[in-house]
Amino acid sequence: MRHWLKTLFILPALAVLLTACGDEAPKELPPERTLTILAGSELKDVEPLLPKLEAETGIRLKFEYSGTLDGVERLQAGEAFDAAWFSHAKYLMLDPTTRAKVKASEKIMLSPVVLGVKESRFKALGWDKKAELTWKDIAQAAASGQFNFAMTNPTSSNTGFSALMGVAAAFAGKADALTEQDVAQLDLTGLFKGQKLTAGSSGWLAERYLAEADRLDGMINYESVLLGLNVGTSGAGNSNVAPLKDKLHLVYPRDGIVTADYPLLLLNDAKRAAYDKVVAWLKSAETQQALMRDTRRRPVNPSVASAQGLFPDALLSELPFPNRIEVVNKLLFSYLNDQRRPAHAFFVLDISGSMEGERLQGLRAALTSLAGGDTSLTGRFARFQNRERISLIPFSSGVEQDLLLAADMGKSGPENDKTLNQIRTYAGQLGVRGGTALYDAVAEAYRQAALAMKNDPQRYYTIVAMTDGESNTGMTLAEFKRFYASLPPDVRQVRVFTVLFGDSDPAEMKTLAELTGGHMFDSRKTSLSRMFKSIRGYQ
Amino acid sequence: MSAADSVRKFVGPLLTLLLLVGVGLGIWYSSDGKQEADKAAAVVTIKGLIGSEKLPFLQDPRVLAYLEKQGIKLEAMKAGSREIALRPDLKQFDYAYPAGVPAATKLQKEQNIRQTYPTFFTPMALASWKPVVAVLQANGIVEQRGKSWYIVDMMKLMRWMEEGKRWRDIPGNSQYPVGKSILVSTTDVRTSNSAAMYLSLLSYLANERNVVQDEAQLRQVLPLVTPLFLKQGYQESSSAGPFEDYVSMGMGKAPLVLVYESQFIEYLARTPKDARNPDMVLLYPEPTVYTKHILTPLNEKGRRLGELFANDATLQRLAVEYGYRVNNPNLFREVNQARGIEAPDNLLDVIDPPAYEILEKMITAIEQQMSR
């Protein structure tokens, strides 16, 4: 499923191997010649340039990847890195704790977050006859059901984040940066009615778009990603995929956009000399050319003239960005609680005998975290939100009918507290029983989802399936496949996000995720709490 | 750390002294031969805190080589101009070189320094774009004066900004019809001198063309000028940021960007014509305000450096090449004419920034609004 993304990841690794396998093992460099960097995962496509960087500057970059908001929390907690590199640093700079750690900041490249619309849909909607589109035009089409799109979750991924900031500014109709009052009055529900696919990462979103282009009308993503899909490359790895047949028409809404500017931030003053060298190299005309050619991001070095025809010649009207972190957070919560399509999240949970002990503790902790137990900022974003419906389907030798729980979140804090309490209590009382009938339980989730969708088609439905062992009773995988194939098309669109845990079977869990357009999360080395938190970006 | 520092404090001067004695002896003993080696031994390191905008100039190999010929190894560390005067470790440095008169005056008072060295200066200006300027020209806000430079009536522009007018609301504006407010984009006034200079300018205009001098005036002026910072939203913390955005992101990011004239000239000088956006233009506010770069010595070594930067013909010429103005207006004209850059010889309507304490109070008040 992830073949082209994988190639993208393998290529840099190969490049590193090749340079390393010269005549000796890779030498450890003295500390003044290495920079540890906490980086956004979208910067993986810069990795192929690193051997050249090291050859020409003598400096080795060591990347550790993380989401932006996650990264902010790690820096707040005091994790030490020499530098940080994300697609933007606005959130980090608005937070007083992390802002104080930044010793220098240099933008390296640019890519606006824009909307790609299928050429055929673009014409069908008559948008080719309009001189300029606005976010309102797009929202109108989305609200009336004529247009749907994919966009990442703004609390997990930067493209969703930038898009939300842009759309909110455009909708508030204000000429200046947003305030908290503006956020309180916002109504973006029309636009987000059209959000047919959400995701925790821009890469996965693009990958799903490729696989499901026939049922999606467009996607919000970096200009660089959208341009890459059109020509059939996926970034710096230049790993080839078939170019899109129905090309994406890039829309730069008239009322404005938000541009990712990829600043490289110095955090450790003692490494300033190395940092300066790396920045000079990255901003040199030659590197900027390479970045533009290979990653399709716009250069910041003005002497590198934009390649003819590579970037559409549109006026990029940059929307003002809030100058207070409270406004940004309020907007993110508003998206989750009020603006997005409410979610209905199914959790298929293994409570078979092998879960006894630590594993059960892990599961209890993970549920408790989502039910308000994790009070960190990212924890509060990942929590069950207003209007959400949560269905818990525990299973062992079969579905545990007596333990089924369906809980509705309310529309306010006190209403929610009741539900969250209920789930926390429930989690605390979970005990273990019998065997592992995974597919029976997943089938039960689909049956419940099918029923729920009849009454409430506007919700966003997903299934999480977690097990710590191989399915050993009830339906087999082959039987489940037949069951799945017999479901109505709209029900088949409900994705299963599988969680690999304990001794569960990677091949089967992967098949189950791929069959349903979901994704497998590996929790064998990471806590269930952390994995559930990541999956929330996809719900 | 502090033990090592205090050792260094004693050892440093001691070594210098030994070196000087050694050099003296060397000269005494050999009037021929080994002069080259002696010269190298006589090089003295002079270390200082500087405003970040001067870093490229002070790191220029020509500047460093020339100073080395004078027996000086220059060390410069970036620091915010606002914070330099309050640095507890100031004593470790030989000179401070902040941007702007207010910071230099504060430093002079606090450290009891008799003489400071004005070295070069640059007026505040607005970097803009031909389509934007056409709109402003049609409305009598901007007027063309040179082949490629303009003046902007700051009072009129400020009125529009205070009214909350949007670009698309300007009559006859088909060139730049965006929904954003008319605002000048600046850096963060809490951390950057250039934004503080803008504040000086706005407060002067809001105070009926008088430099703000007391609390009463300050209270009157603040409600008028504060929104012009707050409404901008997110801002960059150093002056390199907005100018970088100006050249790389173009008109869509910001139609009017507060810059130092020197930044713009230096950019023109180092960028080949065909690699530049032909729509870039520079507007000179009327009135405007200068950012003066005053070298403030903290000891004898610093004084020596101050003398050089203020008076040495070679260093003054190099500063002009970096876009700065010096006391000799002919030098500025000559250097720029030779490289095809047109700029006004002198600006007539230039105001003084308020005293450091008043400026600080205004910045603090805006800071409080920002975090409210």
Q: State the end-to-end CA separation of chain B.
A: 38 Å
Helix content of chain B: 40-55%
CATH class annotation of the largest domain in chain B? Alpha Beta
Q: How would you classify the helix and strand content of chain A by structural class?
A: alpha/beta
Mean pLDDT of chain B: 87
> What would the principal axes of the Cα set say about the shape of chain B?
globular
CATH topology of the largest domain in chain A: the name is Rossmann fold
The top-level CATH class of the largest domain in chain A is Alpha Beta
Outline the low-pLDDT stretches of chain A: 1-24
Helix content of chain A: 40-55%
Q: Outline of chain A, from the CA principal axes?
A: globular
**Largest interface in this structure:** A-B, 35 and 36 residues
Distance between the termini of chain A: 20 Å
Parts with pLDDT < 50 across at least 5 consecutive residues of chain B: 22-34
Walk across the major sheet of chain A and give the strand order: 15-14-13-16-17-18
The H/E string of chain B reads HHEHHEHEHEHEEHHHHEHEEHHHEH
Q: How much is the average pLDDT of chain A?
A: 90
Total of helices of chain A? 23
Structure summary, number of beta strands of chain A? 18
Rounded to an integer in angstroms, the radius of gyration calculated over CA atoms of chain A is: 24 Å
Tell me the number of strands of chain B.
Answer: 10
